[in-house]
Amino acid sequence: MPGPALLSLLFLLQAPAAQGPEHFFVGHTESTGSVSVVMSGRHAVRDHSRGRIERGNILVLDQNVEEQGKPARNRTWRLRRTADNRISGTISDARGPVTGDVSGNVIHLRYQSAEGPAVEQWIALAPGGRFAQNRMVFRRFGVTLATVDSVIRRLD
């Protein structure tokens, strides 16, 4: 079971709307929360991320994920938002593409973890643009295996 793969991912509104919601993750962010695994209990998770926008309006997010009971790991996201508010991209430890959409202050992502479960994630920006709520659900054959709940905070 992957850790909280996307804890501080993606596109939320920090900068003016003209720049796009992906600017929430430009600079340093940090998330703290917990992973709840069915029949195994709950444990802590945290990540530290640094994001930048590269040519082609691609958000690149480098993360260091620390999940209680597991070695720290690094991952890289490469995501692009299209004019119709769709998201597409990759994550270094996912199988296949990351897809999703932006609706208001909420980002909804979908991808397949390299370890098997399908992942769905919702990130909702709090008023003021300095914090976001993150919710992830890991499913296999339609059955929820684990959830992640965390708060993402801008450090810059």
Large-scale geometry:
globular
CATH-defined superfamily:
Calycin beta-barrel core domain
Classified by CATH, the class is Mainly Beta
The SS-based structural class is mainly beta
Average pLDDT figure: 86
Strand proportion, as a percent range, falls in over 45%
Please name the CATH topology.
Lipocalin
- The arrangement of helices and strands along the chain is EEEEEEEEEE
The second-level CATH architecture is Beta Barrel
- Oligomerization: single chain
The number of helical runs is 0
Portion of residues in helices? Answer: under 10%
Strands of the largest sheet, in order across it?
1-2-3-4-5-6-7-8-9-10
Number of strands: 10
Low-confidence stretches: 1-19
Distance between the termini: 31 Å
Protein architecture, described:
This protein is mainly beta. The protein has one domain (17-154): Calycin beta-barrel core domain (Lipocalin, Beta Barrel). Helices cover 0% and strands 63% of the residues. It has no helices and 10 strands. It has strands at 27-37, 41-54, 58-67, 73-81, 86-91, 94-103, 106-113, 118-125, 131-140, 143-154. It has a 10-stranded antiparallel beta barrel with strand order 1-2-3-4-5-6-7-8-9-10. A hairpin with a 4-residue loop joins strand 4 (73-81) and strand 5 (86-91). The protein is globular, with a radius of gyration of 14 Å.
